[in-house]
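Problem 3 from the worked examples.
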Amino acid sequence: MKEELKKNLLIINSKDRKKGDSNNFTYNLGETSIDIEGVALKSAVIPHTYTNVNKTNNVLKYSQGTEIVLADPYEGALVVNGIVDSYFTTGGPIYTQDQFINAINTSIGLGTIIELSYNTVASRYEIRTKTTVAPGLQIIQPTYNPTYRNLWVYLGFTSPTTLGNTIGSITQAPNPPLSPFDVEPVEYFEETIAEGQYTLTELMPLVAAAISLNIPGSINVQLLSDGLVQVGGALETWRFEDCEIATMLGYVPREMTYSAIQIAQGVPNMYG
């Protein structure tokens, strides 16, 4: 009769070592002869071998500005040679000024004939003619839906207005824009955080200092009782742009809107 071999599981814990440290130790198996068929690592504590803020992710990106929040629909219509050629109705409901201007300039029809821009010196919107039209080009009141608000009037233009009909002609609005289109262009900032291994407590004041370089107010960063990070104290509305430091703090920049107080969407994760 063949002798049955008994198999046993031998568990080695570094805490039971005879000498050495947890990374390099000797374990005494006694005098018994053992045939080892396999070795498996059940668990280990592996320290981080890199700095969580390093040369690949140590730029904090944020911007200052306001947004166009549209509670009502607006329409801007365009007449070419006496015929309503195209119109633009607002989508939204939230745009930065750049996003709003881009929406008009890339719209089908309207965007192929005119180009909207904002003159920061004059604080006026301007319309540039992109194609030669004879005898004329006009912006007029809503035609697709007469109940919509007249977009051109809210942008500071009178309606109707005859635009220049040659390529490059610029028509500046005679009046400043009305709310909610009276916003200033967004300013973007990038500030470098020194490379290093940071805890959340160590990183928060560095972020506050970096934001304070461009955003007025007494910027403070704190951890709320629910575990979320809050940045407060700003006198202007701002938000984070896409960057890893913001993500470490629990923010999702693409989900942020401009505000003086910013509360993270999730809990901090210092190692990504």
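Problem 4, a separate protein:
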Amino acid sequence: MFTFKVKDKEYKIKFSINAMAENDLMDRVQSLFQMMEEDGTVKIVRELALTIRELIYVGSQKYNPIESVEEAGNVFDDYFDEHKEQGDTDITTTFFGMFVKDLQDEGFMGDLLETMMKNQKVEKKKK
């Protein structure tokens, strides 16, 4: 879980099992990383925008539900504007990175990924 603040409102983000079971978000994040490795086209920009909106929407549901993905997009727009005014750079990729780190390190997803990685290492040693 992590938090971020926009217009004096704090948003708590947690990718609970219920939130993650309702969508294909992990597939989209993985697909986005593959696109980034393969090429730097405009397609990436659209997919990143769609994915960030959904990450905010899904992650906020447990502690401070946002009503729609469009509202989640407005939250990001406000976050971006505030950080741009402060002179920050790489705002979008840094913001996306916070979500990816949380998905990888926290809660049931982090535990599941860690277990899967350990099992792969054991299987490789057996071969």
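Solution to problem 4. The longest strand covers residues 2-6. The helical segments are 17-21, 25-38, 42-60, 69-85, 91-105, 107-126.
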